[in-house]
Amino acid sequence: MEHNHDAYVSPLSTRYASQEMQHIFSDNFKFRTWRKLWIALAKAEHALGLPVTQAQIDELEAHQDDINYDVAEERERLVRHDVMSHVYAYGQQCPQAAGIIHLGATSCYVGDNTDVIILRAASRLVLAKCAQVARNLAGFAETYRDMPCLGYTHLQPAQLTTVGKRATLWLYELLQDMENLSFQLSQLKLLGSKGTTGTQASFMELFQGDEEKIKEMERLIAQDMGFSAVVPVSGQTYSRKVDAYFLNCLSGIAQSAMKFANDLRILQSFEEMEEPFEKNQIGSSAMPYKRNPMRSERICALARYVVVDSLNPGLTAGTQWFERTLDDSANKRIAVAEAFLAVDAILNIYINITEGLVVNPKVIERRVMEKLPFMATENIMMESVKRGGDRQALHEALRVHAHAAAAKVKLEGGQNDLIDRIAADSRFPMTKAEILAQMDPKTYTGRAASQVTEFLRDVVTPALAQYTDQHITAELRV
User: Which residues carry out catalysis?
Assistant: First the structure.
Protein backbone atom coordinates (compact mmCIF):
# COMPACT_ATOMS: atom_id res chain seq x y z
CA MET A 1 0.00 0.00 0.00
CA GLU A 2 1.36 3.41 -1.01
CA HIS A 3 1.79 5.96 1.78
CA ASN A 4 1.34 9.67 1.22
CA HIS A 5 4.08 11.12 3.37
CA ASP A 6 2.63 14.62 2.97
CA ALA A 7 -0.68 13.75 4.67
CA TYR A 8 -1.64 12.99 8.25
CA VAL A 9 -2.38 9.34 8.92
CA SER A 10 -3.67 8.21 12.30
CA PRO A 11 -1.10 6.24 14.34
CA LEU A 12 -4.02 4.13 15.53
CA SER A 13 -4.08 2.68 12.02
CA THR A 14 -0.37 2.60 11.20
CA ARG A 15 1.09 1.64 14.58
CA TYR A 16 -1.41 0.38 17.12
CA ALA A 17 -4.83 -1.08 16.30
CA SER A 18 -5.32 -4.55 14.85
CA GLN A 19 -6.47 -5.22 11.30
CA GLU A 20 -9.61 -6.87 12.72
CA MET A 21 -10.68 -3.73 14.58
CA GLN A 22 -9.73 -1.48 11.69
CA HIS A 23 -11.92 -3.58 9.39
CA ILE A 24 -14.94 -3.06 11.66
CA PHE A 25 -14.56 0.71 11.23
CA SER A 26 -13.66 0.49 7.54
CA ASP A 27 -15.59 1.77 4.54
CA ASN A 28 -16.23 -1.78 3.36
CA PHE A 29 -17.82 -2.84 6.65
CA LYS A 30 -19.90 0.35 6.78
CA PHE A 31 -21.19 0.50 3.23
CA ARG A 32 -21.72 -3.24 2.87
CA THR A 33 -23.81 -3.05 6.02
CA TRP A 34 -25.78 -0.21 4.46
CA ARG A 35 -26.56 -2.50 1.54
CA LYS A 36 -27.51 -5.37 3.86
CA LEU A 37 -29.95 -3.02 5.56
CA TRP A 38 -31.44 -1.91 2.24
CA ILE A 39 -31.86 -5.57 1.30
CA ALA A 40 -33.48 -6.33 4.69
CA LEU A 41 -35.87 -3.41 4.19
CA ALA A 42 -36.78 -4.56 0.66
CA LYS A 43 -37.33 -8.15 1.82
CA ALA A 44 -39.60 -7.01 4.67
CA GLU A 45 -41.57 -4.70 2.37
CA HIS A 46 -41.92 -7.51 -0.20
CA ALA A 47 -43.13 -9.94 2.47
CA LEU A 48 -45.73 -7.43 3.67
CA GLY A 49 -47.21 -6.72 0.26
CA LEU A 50 -45.53 -3.55 -0.98
CA PRO A 51 -44.62 -3.40 -4.70
CA VAL A 52 -41.12 -4.86 -4.25
CA THR A 53 -40.39 -7.96 -6.33
CA GLN A 54 -38.19 -10.96 -5.63
CA ALA A 55 -36.28 -10.17 -8.83
CA GLN A 56 -35.41 -6.74 -7.43
CA ILE A 57 -34.25 -8.30 -4.16
CA ASP A 58 -32.13 -10.84 -6.06
CA GLU A 59 -30.51 -8.01 -8.00
CA LEU A 60 -29.73 -6.12 -4.79
CA GLU A 61 -28.22 -9.25 -3.23
CA ALA A 62 -26.05 -9.86 -6.30
CA HIS A 63 -24.32 -6.51 -5.73
CA GLN A 64 -24.29 -6.48 -1.94
CA ASP A 65 -20.51 -6.40 -1.57
CA ASP A 66 -19.07 -4.96 -4.82
CA ILE A 67 -19.43 -1.31 -3.96
CA ASN A 68 -18.78 1.14 -6.80
CA TYR A 69 -17.01 3.74 -4.69
CA ASP A 70 -15.99 5.87 -7.68
CA VAL A 71 -19.63 6.44 -8.63
CA ALA A 72 -20.69 7.17 -5.04
CA GLU A 73 -17.84 9.62 -4.46
CA GLU A 74 -18.45 11.48 -7.70
CA ARG A 75 -22.16 11.73 -6.87
CA GLU A 76 -21.47 13.00 -3.35
CA ARG A 77 -19.33 15.84 -4.72
CA LEU A 78 -22.41 16.88 -6.66
CA VAL A 79 -25.25 16.40 -4.15
CA ARG A 80 -23.35 16.71 -0.82
CA HIS A 81 -25.26 13.80 0.73
CA ASP A 82 -23.51 10.53 1.49
CA VAL A 83 -26.60 8.31 1.84
CA MET A 84 -28.27 9.50 -1.35
CA SER A 85 -24.96 9.17 -3.17
CA HIS A 86 -24.77 5.51 -2.22
CA VAL A 87 -28.43 4.96 -3.06
CA TYR A 88 -27.62 6.35 -6.51
CA ALA A 89 -24.47 4.22 -6.88
CA TYR A 90 -26.34 1.07 -5.81
CA GLY A 91 -29.08 1.89 -8.27
CA GLN A 92 -26.55 2.17 -11.09
CA GLN A 93 -25.58 -1.45 -10.44
CA CYS A 94 -29.20 -2.56 -9.88
CA PRO A 95 -31.33 -0.77 -12.48
CA GLN A 96 -34.39 -2.97 -11.89
CA ALA A 97 -34.30 -2.23 -8.15
CA ALA A 98 -33.17 1.41 -8.31
CA GLY A 99 -36.67 2.74 -7.65
CA ILE A 100 -37.27 0.76 -4.44
CA ILE A 101 -33.88 1.17 -2.70
CA HIS A 102 -34.39 2.99 0.61
CA LEU A 103 -38.19 2.97 0.12
CA GLY A 104 -39.84 4.90 2.97
CA ALA A 105 -36.62 5.24 4.94
CA THR A 106 -34.56 8.19 6.09
CA SER A 107 -30.77 8.45 6.20
CA CYS A 108 -30.54 7.25 9.78
CA TYR A 109 -32.08 3.95 8.74
CA VAL A 110 -28.74 2.95 7.27
CA GLY A 111 -26.47 5.33 9.21
CA ASP A 112 -27.65 4.65 12.75
CA ASN A 113 -28.48 0.98 12.34
CA THR A 114 -25.00 0.45 10.92
CA ASP A 115 -23.48 2.30 13.87
CA VAL A 116 -25.33 -0.03 16.23
CA ILE A 117 -24.07 -3.06 14.30
CA ILE A 118 -20.54 -1.66 14.45
CA LEU A 119 -20.87 -1.16 18.22
CA ARG A 120 -21.86 -4.81 18.52
CA ALA A 121 -19.02 -6.14 16.36
CA ALA A 122 -16.35 -3.95 17.96
CA SER A 123 -17.51 -4.77 21.49
CA ARG A 124 -17.43 -8.48 20.78
CA LEU A 125 -13.83 -8.18 19.61
CA VAL A 126 -12.93 -6.15 22.70
CA LEU A 127 -14.50 -8.77 24.95
CA ALA A 128 -12.65 -11.60 23.20
CA LYS A 129 -9.36 -9.79 23.78
CA CYS A 130 -10.24 -8.98 27.39
CA ALA A 131 -10.95 -12.67 27.89
CA GLN A 132 -7.47 -13.53 26.60
CA VAL A 133 -5.88 -11.05 29.01
CA ALA A 134 -7.98 -12.58 31.79
CA ARG A 135 -6.82 -16.09 30.88
CA ASN A 136 -3.20 -14.92 30.88
CA LEU A 137 -3.55 -13.22 34.26
CA ALA A 138 -5.39 -16.22 35.73
CA GLY A 139 -2.56 -18.54 34.73
CA PHE A 140 -0.01 -16.13 36.15
CA ALA A 141 -1.93 -15.80 39.41
CA GLU A 142 -2.12 -19.57 39.79
CA THR A 143 1.60 -20.01 39.13
CA TYR A 144 2.61 -17.42 41.71
CA ARG A 145 -0.28 -17.83 44.13
CA ASP A 146 1.94 -18.42 47.19
CA MET A 147 5.15 -16.49 46.34
CA PRO A 148 5.50 -13.86 49.11
CA CYS A 149 6.26 -10.29 48.08
CA LEU A 150 6.11 -6.88 49.66
CA GLY A 151 2.68 -5.30 49.72
CA TYR A 152 2.41 -1.54 49.47
CA THR A 153 0.11 1.09 50.82
CA HIS A 154 0.90 4.71 49.93
CA LEU A 155 3.73 3.15 47.89
CA GLN A 156 5.41 2.31 51.20
CA PRO A 157 6.19 -1.29 52.23
CA ALA A 158 3.24 -2.77 54.13
CA GLN A 159 2.16 -6.29 55.09
CA LEU A 160 3.25 -9.03 52.75
CA THR A 161 1.02 -10.30 49.98
CA THR A 162 1.84 -12.74 47.16
CA VAL A 163 2.72 -12.16 43.55
CA GLY A 164 -0.33 -14.18 42.50
CA LYS A 165 -2.70 -12.35 44.84
CA ARG A 166 -1.62 -9.02 43.38
CA ALA A 167 -2.40 -10.34 39.89
CA THR A 168 -5.96 -11.13 41.01
CA LEU A 169 -6.47 -7.42 41.72
CA TRP A 170 -5.64 -6.58 38.12
CA LEU A 171 -7.82 -9.45 36.92
CA TYR A 172 -10.85 -8.59 39.07
CA GLU A 173 -10.99 -5.04 37.77
CA LEU A 174 -10.87 -6.30 34.18
CA LEU A 175 -13.65 -8.82 34.87
CA GLN A 176 -15.85 -6.01 36.17
CA ASP A 177 -15.20 -4.04 32.97
CA MET A 178 -16.12 -7.09 30.90
CA GLU A 179 -19.33 -7.50 32.89
CA ASN A 180 -20.27 -3.87 32.24
CA LEU A 181 -19.59 -4.12 28.51
CA SER A 182 -21.45 -7.44 28.30
CA PHE A 183 -24.45 -5.83 29.97
CA GLN A 184 -24.49 -2.98 27.47
CA LEU A 185 -24.29 -5.49 24.63
CA SER A 186 -27.23 -7.41 26.10
CA GLN A 187 -29.29 -4.20 26.08
CA LEU A 188 -28.30 -3.07 22.59
CA LYS A 189 -31.23 -2.75 20.18
CA LEU A 190 -31.43 -1.86 16.52
CA LEU A 191 -32.94 1.54 15.73
CA GLY A 192 -35.24 -0.05 13.20
CA SER A 193 -36.98 2.15 10.64
CA LYS A 194 -38.51 5.08 12.48
CA GLY A 195 -38.63 7.79 9.83
CA THR A 196 -37.57 11.43 9.93
CA THR A 197 -38.91 12.31 13.38
CA GLY A 198 -39.47 8.83 14.77
CA THR A 199 -43.21 8.70 13.95
CA GLN A 200 -42.95 6.30 10.98
CA ALA A 201 -45.30 8.59 9.06
CA SER A 202 -43.85 7.57 5.68
CA PHE A 203 -44.60 3.92 6.44
CA MET A 204 -48.13 4.76 7.53
CA GLU A 205 -48.52 6.14 4.02
CA LEU A 206 -46.91 3.14 2.33
CA PHE A 207 -48.88 0.59 4.35
CA GLN A 208 -52.11 2.60 4.20
CA GLY A 209 -52.31 3.03 7.95
CA ASP A 210 -51.71 -0.64 8.87
CA GLU A 211 -49.67 -0.27 12.06
CA GLU A 212 -49.28 -4.01 12.59
CA LYS A 213 -47.50 -4.32 9.26
CA ILE A 214 -45.13 -1.51 10.23
CA LYS A 215 -44.27 -3.27 13.47
CA GLU A 216 -43.82 -6.57 11.63
CA MET A 217 -41.53 -4.84 9.12
CA GLU A 218 -39.26 -3.73 11.94
CA ARG A 219 -39.30 -7.19 13.49
CA LEU A 220 -38.27 -8.74 10.18
CA ILE A 221 -35.45 -6.21 9.69
CA ALA A 222 -34.14 -6.79 13.21
CA GLN A 223 -34.27 -10.55 12.71
CA ASP A 224 -32.38 -10.23 9.43
CA MET A 225 -29.64 -8.19 11.12
CA GLY A 226 -29.35 -10.54 14.11
CA PHE A 227 -31.17 -8.48 16.73
CA SER A 228 -34.05 -9.56 18.92
CA ALA A 229 -35.61 -6.10 19.15
CA VAL A 230 -35.65 -2.51 17.95
CA VAL A 231 -35.83 0.51 20.25
CA PRO A 232 -39.45 1.15 21.34
CA VAL A 233 -39.36 4.90 20.70
CA SER A 234 -36.91 7.33 19.15
CA GLY A 235 -36.57 10.56 17.26
CA GLN A 236 -34.76 10.21 13.98
CA THR A 237 -31.71 8.63 15.66
CA TYR A 238 -31.01 6.13 18.39
CA SER A 239 -30.26 7.88 21.66
CA ARG A 240 -26.69 9.16 21.71
CA LYS A 241 -26.57 8.02 25.32
CA VAL A 242 -25.90 4.55 23.88
CA ASP A 243 -22.52 5.76 22.63
CA ALA A 244 -21.85 7.24 26.05
CA TYR A 245 -22.67 3.92 27.73
CA PHE A 246 -20.28 2.00 25.50
CA LEU A 247 -17.44 4.49 25.72
CA ASN A 248 -17.78 4.55 29.50
CA CYS A 249 -17.18 0.79 29.38
CA LEU A 250 -14.12 1.33 27.20
CA SER A 251 -12.89 3.97 29.61
CA GLY A 252 -13.19 1.40 32.41
CA ILE A 253 -11.06 -1.08 30.47
CA ALA A 254 -8.49 1.64 29.84
CA GLN A 255 -8.43 2.53 33.54
CA SER A 256 -7.87 -1.08 34.56
CA ALA A 257 -5.13 -1.55 31.98
CA MET A 258 -3.45 1.67 33.15
CA LYS A 259 -3.53 0.46 36.76
CA PHE A 260 -1.81 -2.77 35.72
CA ALA A 261 0.73 -0.95 33.57
CA ASN A 262 1.60 1.59 36.24
CA ASP A 263 2.06 -1.17 38.83
CA LEU A 264 4.33 -3.04 36.43
CA ARG A 265 6.35 0.08 35.68
CA ILE A 266 7.01 0.50 39.39
CA LEU A 267 7.78 -3.21 39.87
CA GLN A 268 10.22 -3.03 36.97
CA SER A 269 11.91 -0.10 38.69
CA PHE A 270 12.14 -2.28 41.83
CA GLU A 271 13.52 -5.06 39.55
CA GLU A 272 10.95 -7.49 40.98
CA MET A 273 9.06 -8.01 37.71
CA GLU A 274 9.53 -6.99 34.09
CA GLU A 275 7.56 -6.83 30.90
CA PRO A 276 8.96 -8.92 28.01
CA PHE A 277 12.14 -7.56 26.45
CA GLU A 278 13.00 -8.75 22.96
CA LYS A 279 16.44 -9.87 21.90
CA ASN A 280 17.06 -6.92 19.57
CA GLN A 281 15.03 -4.32 21.46
CA ILE A 282 16.77 -1.03 22.24
CA GLY A 283 15.87 0.55 25.56
CA SER A 284 17.61 3.88 25.12
CA SER A 285 19.45 5.67 22.31
CA ALA A 286 22.03 6.93 24.83
CA MET A 287 22.13 4.21 27.50
CA PRO A 288 22.64 0.73 26.00
CA TYR A 289 21.95 -1.06 29.30
CA LYS A 290 18.42 0.31 29.67
CA ARG A 291 15.38 -2.01 29.74
CA ASN A 292 12.59 0.55 29.66
CA PRO A 293 8.98 -0.64 30.22
CA MET A 294 7.92 0.80 26.87
CA ARG A 295 4.90 -1.48 26.46
CA SER A 296 3.46 -0.49 29.81
CA GLU A 297 4.20 3.14 29.12
CA ARG A 298 2.29 2.86 25.82
CA ILE A 299 -0.71 1.37 27.62
CA CYS A 300 -0.72 4.34 29.99
CA ALA A 301 -0.44 6.83 27.13
CA LEU A 302 -3.28 5.31 25.14
CA ALA A 303 -5.41 4.80 28.25
CA ARG A 304 -5.27 8.50 29.10
CA TYR A 305 -6.51 9.23 25.58
CA VAL A 306 -9.45 6.83 25.93
CA VAL A 307 -10.48 8.14 29.36
CA VAL A 308 -10.60 11.71 28.05
CA ASP A 309 -12.22 10.69 24.73
CA SER A 310 -15.01 8.92 26.61
CA LEU A 311 -16.36 12.35 27.63
CA ASN A 312 -17.30 13.12 24.01
CA PRO A 313 -20.50 11.05 23.70
CA GLY A 314 -21.91 12.37 26.95
CA LEU A 315 -21.52 15.95 25.75
CA THR A 316 -22.98 14.94 22.40
CA ALA A 317 -25.97 13.20 23.99
CA GLY A 318 -26.77 16.22 26.14
CA THR A 319 -26.78 18.62 23.20
CA GLN A 320 -29.13 16.76 20.85
CA TRP A 321 -32.10 19.03 20.12
CA PHE A 322 -35.59 17.53 20.07
CA GLU A 323 -35.92 14.80 17.41
CA ARG A 324 -32.38 15.27 16.07
CA THR A 325 -29.62 17.68 15.13
CA LEU A 326 -26.46 17.08 13.14
CA ASP A 327 -23.77 18.39 15.45
CA ASP A 328 -23.29 14.80 16.63
CA SER A 329 -22.02 13.40 13.33
CA ALA A 330 -18.50 14.79 12.96
CA ASN A 331 -17.70 14.26 16.64
CA LYS A 332 -19.28 10.81 16.80
CA ARG A 333 -17.48 9.34 13.80
CA ILE A 334 -14.13 10.29 15.36
CA ALA A 335 -14.78 9.71 19.07
CA VAL A 336 -16.42 6.30 18.88
CA ALA A 337 -14.08 4.82 16.28
CA GLU A 338 -10.91 6.05 17.95
CA ALA A 339 -11.99 4.87 21.40
CA PHE A 340 -12.44 1.34 20.08
CA LEU A 341 -9.22 1.46 18.05
CA ALA A 342 -7.26 2.73 21.07
CA VAL A 343 -8.73 0.14 23.44
CA ASP A 344 -7.97 -2.53 20.87
CA ALA A 345 -4.36 -1.33 20.85
CA ILE A 346 -4.25 -1.32 24.65
CA LEU A 347 -5.54 -4.89 24.79
CA ASN A 348 -3.05 -6.03 22.14
CA ILE A 349 -0.23 -4.76 24.37
CA TYR A 350 -1.88 -6.12 27.53
CA ILE A 351 -2.10 -9.59 25.94
CA ASN A 352 1.52 -9.35 24.79
CA ILE A 353 2.82 -8.35 28.22
CA THR A 354 0.83 -10.90 30.20
CA GLU A 355 1.96 -13.72 27.90
CA GLY A 356 5.58 -13.07 28.84
CA LEU A 357 5.69 -11.46 32.28
CA VAL A 358 9.10 -11.91 33.87
CA VAL A 359 9.36 -12.53 37.63
CA ASN A 360 12.67 -12.21 39.47
CA PRO A 361 12.20 -14.42 42.58
CA LYS A 362 15.59 -13.70 44.13
CA VAL A 363 15.06 -9.96 43.98
CA ILE A 364 11.58 -10.33 45.45
CA GLU A 365 12.93 -12.52 48.24
CA ARG A 366 15.80 -10.13 49.01
CA ARG A 367 13.46 -7.17 49.23
CA VAL A 368 11.06 -9.12 51.44
CA MET A 369 13.84 -10.15 53.81
CA GLU A 370 15.10 -6.56 54.04
CA LYS A 371 11.75 -5.46 55.44
CA LEU A 372 10.54 -8.63 57.14
CA PRO A 373 12.30 -7.97 60.48
CA PHE A 374 10.15 -4.87 60.91
CA MET A 375 7.01 -6.79 60.03
CA ALA A 376 7.91 -9.66 62.36
CA THR A 377 8.09 -7.41 65.42
CA GLU A 378 4.43 -7.91 66.34
CA ASN A 379 4.77 -11.71 66.31
CA ILE A 380 8.01 -11.47 68.31
CA MET A 381 6.31 -9.20 70.85
CA MET A 382 3.30 -11.53 71.21
CA GLU A 383 5.50 -14.59 71.70
CA SER A 384 7.58 -12.72 74.28
CA VAL A 385 4.43 -11.71 76.18
CA LYS A 386 3.34 -15.35 76.23
CA ARG A 387 6.64 -16.11 77.95
CA GLY A 388 6.08 -13.51 80.64
CA GLY A 389 7.26 -10.29 79.06
CA ASP A 390 5.68 -6.86 79.68
CA ARG A 391 3.83 -5.85 76.53
CA GLN A 392 4.23 -2.09 76.99
CA ALA A 393 7.91 -2.32 77.75
CA LEU A 394 8.49 -4.68 74.85
CA HIS A 395 6.57 -2.37 72.49
CA GLU A 396 8.77 0.57 73.49
CA ALA A 397 11.92 -1.50 73.12
CA LEU A 398 10.88 -2.63 69.65
CA ARG A 399 10.10 0.96 68.65
CA VAL A 400 13.58 2.09 69.71
CA HIS A 401 15.35 -0.86 68.06
CA ALA A 402 13.34 -0.49 64.83
CA HIS A 403 14.20 3.19 64.47
CA ALA A 404 17.85 2.49 65.18
CA ALA A 405 17.96 -0.31 62.60
CA ALA A 406 16.19 1.89 60.05
CA ALA A 407 18.69 4.67 60.65
CA LYS A 408 21.58 2.24 60.11
CA VAL A 409 20.08 1.25 56.76
CA LYS A 410 19.07 4.71 55.56
CA LEU A 411 21.81 6.91 56.99
CA GLU A 412 24.79 4.56 56.98
CA GLY A 413 23.87 2.27 54.12
CA GLY A 414 24.30 -0.74 56.39
CA GLN A 415 22.37 -3.99 56.74
CA ASN A 416 19.15 -4.28 58.71
CA ASP A 417 20.39 -5.52 62.12
CA LEU A 418 17.03 -5.40 63.93
CA ILE A 419 17.05 -9.15 64.71
CA ASP A 420 20.52 -8.92 66.28
CA ARG A 421 19.41 -5.95 68.40
CA ILE A 422 16.34 -7.81 69.66
CA ALA A 423 18.30 -11.00 70.34
CA ALA A 424 20.82 -9.01 72.41
CA ASP A 425 18.07 -7.36 74.50
CA SER A 426 17.46 -9.34 77.70
CA ARG A 427 13.89 -8.06 77.91
CA PHE A 428 12.99 -10.51 75.11
CA PRO A 429 12.90 -14.08 76.47
CA MET A 430 13.73 -15.57 73.04
CA THR A 431 16.96 -16.87 71.52
CA LYS A 432 18.15 -15.61 68.15
CA ALA A 433 17.21 -18.98 66.63
CA GLU A 434 13.69 -18.65 68.03
CA ILE A 435 13.45 -15.12 66.71
CA LEU A 436 14.65 -16.21 63.27
CA ALA A 437 11.97 -18.90 63.31
CA GLN A 438 9.48 -16.02 63.09
CA MET A 439 11.04 -14.97 59.77
CA ASP A 440 9.28 -17.31 57.34
CA PRO A 441 7.66 -14.92 54.83
CA LYS A 442 4.72 -17.26 54.18
CA THR A 443 3.69 -16.75 57.79
CA TYR A 444 2.85 -13.15 56.93
CA THR A 445 0.80 -13.52 53.72
CA GLY A 446 -2.48 -14.33 55.48
CA ARG A 447 -5.06 -15.97 53.21
CA ALA A 448 -3.49 -14.63 50.01
CA ALA A 449 -2.83 -18.05 48.44
CA SER A 450 -6.26 -19.37 49.40
CA GLN A 451 -7.92 -16.23 48.08
CA VAL A 452 -6.23 -16.79 44.71
CA THR A 453 -7.48 -20.37 44.52
CA GLU A 454 -11.02 -19.44 45.53
CA PHE A 455 -11.17 -16.44 43.20
CA LEU A 456 -9.98 -18.40 40.18
CA ARG A 457 -12.38 -21.26 40.92
CA ASP A 458 -15.49 -19.34 41.97
CA VAL A 459 -15.26 -16.13 39.92
CA VAL A 460 -12.84 -16.34 37.01
CA THR A 461 -13.65 -19.79 35.64
CA PRO A 462 -17.42 -19.16 35.46
CA ALA A 463 -16.89 -15.67 34.00
CA LEU A 464 -14.65 -16.99 31.20
CA ALA A 465 -16.77 -20.05 30.40
CA GLN A 466 -18.75 -18.12 27.76
CA TYR A 467 -15.58 -17.11 25.90
CA THR A 468 -14.64 -20.15 23.89
CA ASP A 469 -12.65 -18.26 21.26
CA GLN A 470 -9.34 -19.73 20.28
CA HIS A 471 -6.19 -18.39 21.90
CA ILE A 472 -5.43 -14.82 20.82
CA THR A 473 -1.78 -13.89 20.42
CA ALA A 474 -1.11 -10.20 19.91
CA GLU A 475 2.03 -9.33 17.98
CA LEU A 476 3.06 -5.72 18.45
CA ARG A 477 3.47 -3.87 15.17
CA VAL A 478 6.12 -1.50 16.51
Answer: 154, 284
